[in-house]
Q: What sequence folds into this?
C-alpha cells in the first residue's frame, strides 16, 4: 500500500498544498513549529478521519477558513483509490473513489497506517486509556466490524451510565436488566476481537523483541480483561454498586494491557530503555500483523522519534520498515540518519512552506 500524493486545503497552517511522494522513504526536515508534524497529522486524518493530536476538530481548520479538506491518492493491490475527507461546522464527509461513505466503518481501512510518535513511548507506562485507544485504533483499521461493535458498545454504555445517574428509588431493575443485555451483546464482541488481536500481536512482537535484544529478553503482551468470566452475571452482581456510584464498573471500557519481559512488569520495573524497546517492538510487530490481516503492508509515520531512540534502535527501526512499508519521517536534522538509502525524497519545511530537495 502506498500514498502517492496528498492535497491539503485550509488544514492547520496550510492554505493550499500539493505533494507527490516517494514510494519508499519521505523525510520532512525542519526546525520545530514549522509544520512538519501537520503533514503526518493530515495523512493520519485522511486514513482515520480524526487527528492523533487533538479531539477538537475545529483546531484542524485554518483560522481564517470555515472548511478544510484533505485528499490523497492511494495505490493498493486492487488499483488506485482517491480518498477525500472534508471537515466543517456540520461534521465530516468521507469519500472513497469519489463516493460518499455514510458509515465510518465503510471508509476506515482504505489507507492503513502505523503511527510512531514520542507519545507512543507512553504506551507501556502511560494510563490504561491510552492502551485501550491503541487497541481500538489498530483493530478499527483491519476489522471494520470492530468499529461497528465499538460504536454500539459505547452508545449502550452511555445510555446505561445516564440511567444510573437517577436516584436509586427511581431505577427500575427490569429496565436496568435490558440495558445490561445490550451492553453485553456488543461488549462480548469487543472482548473476543481484542483477545484475538493481542494474541497475534504478541506472536509478532515476541519475534521482533528477540531480534532487537539479541535474544536476551523475552516479551509477553497480556490482555487484561476486566470481565473475568461472565459479563452479564458480573453486571448483575454490581447493580447496587453501580447504582451507588452512578456508573458502570465492569466491562471492556476498563480493559488494559500488560507488558512483561523475563517475568518482569516493564511499566513498574523496566528501565526507560527497556520501555522504549518494548514500544518499538509493538509498533514494528504491527507491520506484519496488518499484512497478515489485509494482504498489504501499511504505511509508516515516524514523527520525530529518531531523537528519542539511541543509534542502535534507530537502525533497527529503519532496517525493519524499509523494503516493506512506505515511510514518512519528520526530523530536525539528518545527522543521525547516516545509513539512509540514497533513493528517497527529502522535503524542507520552513514556516509552512515545503520544498523538495534535490538528492
A:
Amino acid at each position: 500500500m502506498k500514498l502517492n500524493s496528498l492535497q491539503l486545503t485550509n488544514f492547520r497552517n496550510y492554505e493550499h498544498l500539493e505533494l507527490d511522494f516517494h514510494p519508499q522513504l519521505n523525510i520532512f526536515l525542519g526546525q520545530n513549529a514549522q509544520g512538519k508534524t501537520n503533514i503526518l497529522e493530515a495523512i493520519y486524518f485522511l486514513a482515520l478521519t480524526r487527528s492523533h493530536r487533538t479531539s477538537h476538530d475545529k483546531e484542524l481548520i485554518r483560522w481564517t477558513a470555515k472548511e478544510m479538506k484533505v485528499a490523497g491518492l492511494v495505490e493498493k493491490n486492487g488499483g488506485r483509490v482517491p480518498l477525500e475527507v472534508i471537515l466543517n461546522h456540520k461534521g465530516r464527509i468521507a469519500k472513497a473513489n469519489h463516493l460518499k461513505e455514510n458509515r465510518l466503518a465503510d471508509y476506515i481501512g482504505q489507507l492503513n497506517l502505523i503511527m510512531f510518535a514520542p507519545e507512543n513511548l507512553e504506551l507501556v507506562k502511560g494510563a490504561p486509556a491510552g492502551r485501550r485507544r491503541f487497541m481500538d485504533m489498530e483493530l478499527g483499521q483491519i476489522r471494520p466490524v470492530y468499529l461497528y461493535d465499538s460504536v454500539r458498545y459505547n452508545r449502550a454504555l452511555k445510555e446505561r451510565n445516564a440511567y444510573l445517574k437517577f436516584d436509586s428509588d427511581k431505577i427500575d431493575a427490569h429496565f436496568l436488566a435490558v440495558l445490561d443485555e445490550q451492553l453485553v451483546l456488543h461488549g462480548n464482541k469487543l472482548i473476543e476481537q481484542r483477545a484475538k488481536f493481542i494474541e497475534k500481536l504478541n506472536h509478532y512482537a515476541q519475534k521482533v523483541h528477540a531480534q532487537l535484544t539479541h535474544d536476551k529478553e523475552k516479551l509477553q503482551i497480556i490482555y487484561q480483561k476486566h470481565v473475568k468470566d461472565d459479563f452479564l452475571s458480573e453486571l448483575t452482581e454490581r447493580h447496587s454498586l453501580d447504582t451507588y456510584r452512578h456508573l458502570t464498573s465492569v466491562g471492556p471500557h476498563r480493559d488494559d494491557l500488560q507488558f512483561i519481559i523475563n517475568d518482569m512488569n516493564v511499566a513498574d520495573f523496566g528501565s526507560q530503555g527497556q520501555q522504549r524497546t518494548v514500544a518499538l517492538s509493538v509498533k514494528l510487530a504491527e507491520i506484519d500483523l496488518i499484512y497478515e490481516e489485509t494482504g498489504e503492508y501499511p504505511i509508516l509515520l515516524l514523527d520525530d522519534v529518531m531523537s528519542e531512540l539511541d543509534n542502535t534502535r534507530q537502525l533497527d527501526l529503519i532496517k525493519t520498515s524499509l523494503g516493506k512499508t512506505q515511510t514518512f519521517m519528520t526530523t530536525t536534522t539528518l545527522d543521525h540518519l547516516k545509513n539512509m538509502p540514497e533513493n528517497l525524497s527529502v522535503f524542507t519545511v520552513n514556516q509552512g512552506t515545503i520544498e523538495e530537495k534535490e538528492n
Q: What stands out?
A: The chain has a mean pLDDT of 91. Residues 223 and 257 are 5 Å apart (CA to CA). The first strand starts at residue 2 and ends at 11.
